[in-house]
Amino acid sequence: MKYIKISILYFCALFLSCTGKQKNNILVSSPNKLIKVEFKLLENGEPAYWVTYKNEEVIKKSTLGFDLKDNPPFKTDFKIITSNIRSFNETWEMPWGEQKEVENKYNELKVELQETSELNRKLNIVFRIYDDGVGFRYEFPKQKNLEEVFITEENTAFNLTGNHKVWWIPGDWDIYEHLYNTTNFSEINAKGKAEHPNLAQTYIPENAVNTPVTMKTDKGLYVSFHEAALVDYSGMTLKVDTVNYKMKSVLVGSENVDYKVKRTVPFKTPWRTIQITDTAGDLIESKLIVNLNEPNKLSDISWFKPTKYTGIWWEMHLGKSSWDMASGKHGATTENTKAYIDFSSKNNIGAVLVEGWNTGWEHWIGFEDREGVFDFVTPYSDYNLQEVVRYGKEKGVEIMMHHETSAATQTYEKQQDTAYALMQNLGIHTVKTGYVGKILPKGEYHHGQYMVNQYNNAIIKAAKYQVAINAHEPIKATGLRRTYPNTISREGLRGQEFNAWASDGGNPPEHLTIVAFTRMLAGPIDYTPGIFDIKFNKWKKENQVNTTIAQQLALYVVIYSPVQMAADLIENYEGNPAFQFIKDVGVDWQQTKVINGEIGEFVTIARKERNSENWYVGGITDENSRELTIDFNFLSPNITYIATIYKDGEQAHWNNNPTDIIIQNKEITNQSKLNLKLTEGGGFAISLKPKKQ
To answer: What global pTM score does this model have?
Structure first.
């Protein structure tokens, strides 16, 4: 798929007075004039900003700046040297994604500052104001008095207007796999979530939250905070002041150095983002995060094809098989892989993931000396890598490679060229990476600058070998999929596997109705939906998936990823008519429309498949049953569609009767409306295909 920049529609530069006395406060609006940002230097020369929406304050006076090692604080005694405003508008094409064309339209303010002290250090602050929010970042321009920067803390403040309702996970430096909490801002207690027994590693040093963190104000406004273009920098958490309703950036650090970010001047920080919308659904439709990233740097991405996949994965979590060979029930065998290939080939599924194929799994977790355990090219003796690749090609199914690093980063870094070259030689274009456990070298955290560079450098190197990465235990998504479209998906949340073994009962029915408005705002999610054997009593009687089977189908539309797994054991799909939806549903979209939704309650999303007139709709609810009305006015006019509707049965319930499902066909046009009842923990999925004339 070739990346194409469609057009630049309008560009101008409006320069404020650059000579004489500078204005001390500057106001800039979004293109539709509804969002306004005011920038001002306070009396002590400290930079500050305000944000309003429809003339109502959203962000109160909030200050900006840095603490630096071996340097005075970099946040006061500034004067404005120059400032300029420009308007920009382009339309660019996603090579794959939730929609094909993306409008990137904003007004930009750039303020160049210099200290009045004898240091005369310089700092630029750039704001981009969109119709759906604000992004801003710092620029350290080239200068004589500041050549190398050691940032000990970034002091970016977000001061709120009240005690908002918040959906949050703790600001853990090592993992995002916490359940979301729903509280008022004043009730955030991140440290109370420390040392969860089901997490491989965790470190929560402050009462802080990870981003995206989404809020609803007393006035019914939706606001979400995150970051974009996280490159060569530490991930940002937000420390909360629960009394004064304030947040301040706290960068993820390291035990090995006494700073959090090391950079050579000139450089630019990641964007700090504030999405602001009237409805919860508008947050999902927002493209602010990807728009704040640089355009595609890869000349060609046509070798990556969005796809559905099956895999040797869920059976390990159930205990049917294991990753290691010494257990006597090794899952990644040539014979087992061929069975998955056969099933995928006959069911419109393009790839098979194989975990546990390479040697080393006997020594991969719970050990201090994990460096050198995996080599990423040597298979176990019962797995013939070349043969399964050959067999897959014969059947039209690609093998999806798996690289579990056990967080031994130096081993993986040294062997990436060899591993990616093997993939390229075999014609394998996608790899799922993993970083389970505490990072090696000791003292580093998953979300610090060291690991940000590990993840991003892997993406850049993989692209040279035409390899796309689906990262697990990753750094957060920040829209870099625009710049490097081979970063296709990632975990970065509490996934489906927790339902198989978590001691706290797995993911509650509300989980994904929150995820859609929080984590999914950051980018694609490899959640691994499609579990049909909800109770899996044959394997584990103490655990289950806490949804209906209809909701599992809906997730293929609601939770976006260009790689979607049919995650269950393949024998659980055989002969089940509900599997038809997984066979049919698309993975690459022309258009996305959020039909309705409230955070933590329900959401309905419709997506139109690229290169066809087919639409798919998915809706999910929390632990409460509800009735929803679907208006099909998004469909093309003058076309009659055959809708296949997969909905909760009359007796369905996520716990009592999760597999009760009704499948029916109905003719639908863009004038149609449909009332649907969703049971507790339930959902529905609809495929819409034009009626053949």
So the answer is: 0.96
